[in-house]
Specification:
The chain is of the alpha/beta class and 384 residues long. It contains 18 helices and eleven strands.
């Protein structure tokens, strides 16, 4: 990516222009829709502040907003400007060249975006990957493998930096060449969840962390759905990996449909409550996904490799099982076949194989030490 600068600190005119954008954005009562109304009417933010009360009164805005615009007291934007001075910190406005065109299509497009990392990633072809914060081991591994494969194919993965599927998707994407973008629901002066500090730093170095909320904005429940609309809008499509029936991931999928984007879903076991949201989406018309190539074909994106990755060709996640299992002895391979489709307890494995409980326990221990399976709530799952 080109490390171009969108920090206007060295240009007085640009800095003054940005200050006006921030002042207008955080004027009391000026939300996204009012901001767009004012900008459409007067052309520039400077002209908005220069407009008379009479000119402002002709617009469909409240008297309270007019009073705020004509007040001599201005919002405090010092925290935003101080944040901007740090390395790889950017604030881009709706009219900047760096602002992603797909976001401009939104009627409530954020007038200002805060970016930590490289804004060029916002212009790359992206796929949103979302899902539950409490995935199964298999679901987490699927997300990571799909993201790695798609990133190696040239698709930047975008998600919300949450625990679970979001985090696994970012981690997988960082293994590929196209990087990842995280959209957060708070100010970029904090990282949530806190255990994603290192992940957020890695994303900033190989992608971008972005927010529409100003520096200092703390966590608020109502901001997460707003964040989701940006994730879906920036992407060519949204892939839901695992989600319960009332998952926030379904909100992202709903936004994707409203924004005329593709929606994909990975099916799971009928016994897995984290698969029910995906099954619901498939019944509603989402495209059922079995391999990452299903997504590439639908998006008409050609699989491509670059000279910087000659020794690590992209590999379809579904092929991993074959390579790993071929190195195991026949008994271990037979046991793994019993775990190929859904988690199972030792008792269930005894019933589905000819092995004793002691033999199964011994083999499971070896497979777990090898990282091929994992035990979750007494159920064993094949994760690689």
């Amino acid at each position: 990516m080109t490390k171009h600068g969108t920090r206007p600190a060295g240009n007085t005119e640009q800095l003054n222009n940005l200050k006006n954008w921030l002042l207008l954005r955080y004027t009391p009562g000026v939300g996204e829709l009012t901001f767009h109304t004012l900008l459409d009417a007067f052309g520039t933010v400077e002209a908005v502040f220069d407009a008379s009360r009479g000119q402002l009164a002709t617009l469909a805005i409240s008297p309270r907003v007019i009073d705020a615009l004509k007040s001599e007291t201005r919002p405090d934007i010092s925290a935003d400007l101080a944040w901007l001075q740090q390395e790889n910190h950017h604030i881009i406005t709706l009219l900047d060249e760096a602002y992603p065109a797909q976001l401009r299509e939104l009627p409530d497009a954020p007038p200002v975006l805060y970016v930590r990392g490289d804004p060029d990633y916002l212009k790359q072809p992206m796929l949103a990957m979302v899902g539950t914060r409490n995935p199964t081991a298999a679901g987490r591994n699927t997300a990571k493998e799909f993201a790695s494969y798609l990133s190696s194919a040239g698709i930047t993965i975008i998600s919300g930096l949450a625990s679970g599927i979001d985090g696994a998707s970012h981690e997988g994407a960082l293994q590929g060449m196209a990087g990842t973008v995280a959209v957060v629901a708070h100010g970029l002066d904090i990282v949530y969840p806190a255990h994603h500090q290192q992940l957020a730093q890695a994303i900033a170095e190989n992608g971008a962390v972005i927010a529409e909320m100003p520096v200092g904005t703390q966590l608020q429940r109502g901001l997460f759905p707003r964040r989701n609309r940006l994730i879906s809008a920036l992407a060519l499509g949204t892939l839901v990996v695992e989600a319960a029936q009332k998952s926030g991931s379904l909100i992202t999928a709903k936004y994707a449909i409203e924004q005329n984007r593709e929606v994909f879903a990975i099916p799971g076991s009928i016994h897995n409550p984290m698969a029910r949201g995906c099954h619901k989406l498939i019944r509603q018309g989402a495209k059922l996904v079995e391999t990452a190539d299903d997504i590439l074909e639908e998006l008409c994106v050609s699989l491509k490799q670059t000279a910087s990755y000659p020794e690590k060709p992209a590999k379809n996640p579904r092929d991993n099982h074959k390579d790993l299992h071929q190195t195991l002895d026949p008994d271990h391979q037979k046991l793994l076949k019993c775990l190929a489709y859904e988690p199972a307890s030792i008792d269930e494995l005894v019933r589905s194989s000819n092995f004793t409980a002691a033999e199964i326990a011994s083999m499971l221990l070896i497979l777990e030490l090898e990282g091929i399976i994992i035990c979750q709530d007494g159920l064993y799952t094949c994760v690689s």
